[in-house]
Amino acid sequence: MARDPVPTVSANVYVTSGQPVGGVGISDTFSFTPPFVEGLVSAYRYSFLGGASGTVPADFGGNGSLTWSPGRPGPTTLTVTAIASDGSALSCPLTYSFVVATAHH
Fold first, then answer.
1. Is the pLDDT of residue 82 over 80?
2. Structural domains in the chain plus CATH codes
């Protein structure tokens, strides 16, 4: 069975446009979609470069989400890996990069 090697990540504010978006303290929800057949993914392991990391559970369809607020402006990278119920990685890590805008006063 052919498998897409990485999960899909989407967000409303922190998109991968290359342009500064959002800002320090502005929350967004990152949605994770399984990289292949439903039912295999039980969680997603995530880490922000130089910041928060952890695991969020997946629903029965293999989807997960995470709400996050940046603590600093500038380039940011979120790395996400789909995880099986036994804790093993089901996918290659996906790197999702975006730029957090500097607050304007």
1. yes
2. 8-100 (2.60.40.10)
Residue 3's identity, in one-letter code, is: R
pTM listed for this prediction: 0.89
- Placement of tokens 């804790």 in the chain: 87
Residue 48's alpha-carbon distances to 20, 39, 68, 69, 77, in angstroms, are 17, 26, 10, 11, 6
DSSP annotation string for the chain: ----SS-EEE-SSS-SSSSEES-TT--EEEEEE-SSSTTS--EEEEEETTS-EEEEE--TTS-EEEEE--SS-EEEEEEEEEE-TTS-B-SPPEEEEEEEPPP--
Cβ 80 vs Cβ 7: under 8 Å = yes
Cβ pair 68, 27 in contact under 8 A: yes
Separation CA 99–CA 4 (nearest Å):
26
Beta carbons of 53 and 93 less than 8 angstroms apart: no
